[in-house]
């Protein structure tokens, strides 16, 4: 694996674990201070996430600057028109696959609907709207670079699509910290890996990923109360069925 790839992976890992130091530090110095303790912690976490992700994003793009120049002249990549079609279609593919995976988790494995990780992000966005830039753009771009461009491609070249997609998607799911939703995140990883292979353009899964995240964040933020009521109704229905 290329030397700069190792530096990119190390940067990503440091960024992820930096919150254990950065958030308490921001809270201690009063960044995003608020009379409410919970809100103050949320703001400290949100501002540190914005800072750490932005720094990592700029540094990683700098490390990949030469590869971006080469990718422009990539003769193996799908034509621009076809790539655009896959990028747009990939958004719908991602949403459909996510919906199917979520239903399998709920109905087959008994996993409670909803994601604590997504809910936490929505709560953070409500206190610090600027965080949308991370959840909708910076985060997905970094994840596609790490898990598809580097991990998937390296394993794929040495094995085959299934093994490459499995390894990268499994790690992608683990990083999200919700083992109960392993199938959900892994299915997304397979979808983005497929888009990458079909077009040989990393911008295609990046576009699909960013659009899907943006869609989920908008829906969760604007209709959070309606979604919560619907979830409660589903739990009531399940409890009634379970009691029969």
**Fraction in beta strands:** under 5%
Q: Could you give the order of the helices and strands?
A: HHHHHHHHHHH
Calculate Rg over CA atoms: 19 Å
Continuous helix count: 11
Give unreliable regions as ranges: 230-244
Structural class: mainly alpha
Average pLDDT, rounded to a whole number, is: 86
- Total DSSP E strands: 0
Estimate percent helicity.
over 70%
Reported for the largest beta sheet, the result is:
none
Distance between the termini: 57 Å
Give the overall shape, derived from the CA principal axes: globular
How would you characterize the overall build of this protein?
The chain is mainly α and 244 residues long. The chain starts with a helix and ends with a helix. Helix 3 (37-63) packs across helix 6, helix 3 (37-63) crosses helix 7 (132-158) and helix 8 (161-175) crosses helix 9 (182-199). The chain has 11 helices and no strands. The protein is globular and about 55 Å long. Helices cover 83% and strands 0% of the residues.
Characteristics of this structure?
244 residues; mainly alpha; disordered C terminus
Write a brief caption for the model.
With 244 residues, the protein is mostly helical.
Secondary-structure map with pairings?
Layout: H1 3-17, H2 19-28, H3 37-63, H4 65-72, H5 80-109, H6 116-127, H7 132-158, H8 161-175, H9 182-199, H10 203-222, H11 224-243
């Amino acid at each position: 694996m290329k030397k700069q790839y190792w530096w990119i992976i190390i940067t990503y890992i440091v960024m992820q674990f930096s919150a254990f130091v950065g958030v308490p530090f921001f809270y201690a110095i009063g960044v995003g201070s608020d009379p409410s303790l919970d809100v103050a912690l949320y703001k400290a976490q949100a501002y540190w996430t914005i800072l750490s992700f932005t720094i990592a994003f700029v540094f990683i793009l700098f490390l990949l600057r030469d590869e971006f120049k080469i990718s422009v002249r990539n003769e193996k990549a799908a034509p621009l028109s076809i790539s655009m079609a896959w990028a747009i279609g990939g958004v719908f593919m991602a949403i459909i696959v996510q919906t199917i995976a979520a239903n399998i988790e709920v109905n087959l494995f008994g996993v409670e609907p909803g994601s604590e990780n997504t809910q936490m992000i929505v709560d953070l966005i409500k206190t610090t709207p600027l965080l949308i830039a991370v959840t909708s753009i910076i985060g997905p771009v970094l994840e596609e670079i790490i898990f598809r461009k580097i991990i998937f491609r390296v394993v794929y070249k040495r094995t085959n699509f299934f093994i490459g997609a499995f390894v990268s998607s499994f790690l992608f799911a683990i990083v999200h910290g919700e083992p109960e939703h392993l199938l959900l995140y892994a299915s997304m990883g397979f979808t983005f890996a497929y888009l990458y292979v079909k077009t040989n353009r990393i911008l295609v899964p990046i576009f699909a990923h960013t659009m899907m995240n943006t869609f989920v964040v908008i829906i969760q933020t604007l209709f959070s109360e309606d979604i919560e009521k619907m979830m409660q109704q589903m739990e009531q229905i399940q409890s009634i069925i379970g009691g029969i």
